[in-house]
Amino acid sequence: MQEALALLSEQGACPVAGGTDLLIHIRAGIASPKHLVDLTGIGLGYIRKESSTIKIGATTTFEELLESDRICRDLPCLSQAARQVGAVQTRNLATIGGNLCSAVPSADSAPPLLAYDAQAKIAGRGGERVVALEQFFAGPKKNVLKADELLIEIQIPLPPPRTGAHFLKKGRRSAMTLAVANVAARLTLAEDGRTVEQARIALGAVAPTPRRAKQAEALLQGSAVSAVLIEHAASVAAGEIAPISDLRATADYRREVSRVLVQRALEQAWQTASGRAAT
Q1: Which of 273, 265, 271, 267 lies closest to 115 in space, CA to CA?
Q2: Single residue among 157, 177, 202 that ends a domain in this structure
Q3: Tell me: the pLDDT tens digits for 68-99?
Q4: Residue 36, domain member (yes or no)
């Protein structure tokens, strides 16, 4: 680890793990790092539970996330998103840390991790720090890492009982496509099985960075969940985003798709949370 950090401090050095984004950029002339620092051999590929937190090493691949019983059981929303990342060849190489560090607005791992209140553990030559994931993204393709820092771990608190979460994505194709919009929603119900104790809604590809819809979350929290409430919250969430028009979709289309995806994801989360409450 320290050797990797020392190498990163050299001018022009760039970290690489799966390389699914970086190598394409190098071939296209978009990036031209003087040195590459390979992170695959420094012990950052793991999934483990410590106390009430699930910790995922930054070089864990999306295929490893899919194969993990713990992720499937405890963080199903993240498992759903991992399945949507490219083809199997890509998932065997692409890492969760690389997906986050690329900081593209459409990163599929970002919405579920935001919905699960994830934190990013960062290491540098001056020590380690932990930041909330929603503070990790600084702009399109920009993150808060300094030149001599690495994202080394994602920390996710175990969801409480009576929790449901769901991820949905809309692209121009049905598979192996970049998101026109992607959404993760999480609901935790109170002991009465009706009142929303905690709500999280996160969206990608519809703003400069992946973001939470905090006004819609506030509308849900403390209220008795219903189809009408969910529909209202989805409309509020659609008003919180800042989509653009590009080659993949217009801003108006992204806003409407986001509203629909939020409503459907919340309905699925409600169904799951209610099922857990009934057992």
Answers
A1: 265
A2: 157
A3: 999 999 999 999 999 999 788 889 889 999 99
A4: no
- What does the alpha-carbon distance between residue 270 and residue 234 come to, in Å, rounded to a whole number? 13
pLDDT in tens, 44-69: 999 999 999 999 999 999 999 999 99
Same domain, yes or no, for 180 and 92?
A: no
Contact present, 204 and 210 (Cβ < 8 Å): yes
Of 157, 178, 204, at which residue does a domain stop?
A: 157
Q: Are both 172 and 255 inside the same structural domain? A: yes
What local confidence, expressed as pLDDT, does residue 12 receive?
66
Q: Give the closest residue to 99 by CA, choosing from 116, 125, 120.
A: 120
- C-alpha distances in Å from residue 79, one per residue of 38, 76, 175, 187, 214: 26, 5, 16, 17, 24
Q: Are residues 227 and 267 in the same domain?
A: yes
pLDDT interval class at 140 (50, 70, 90) = very high
DSSP state at residue 160: P
The answer to whether residues 175 and 250 belong to one domain is yes
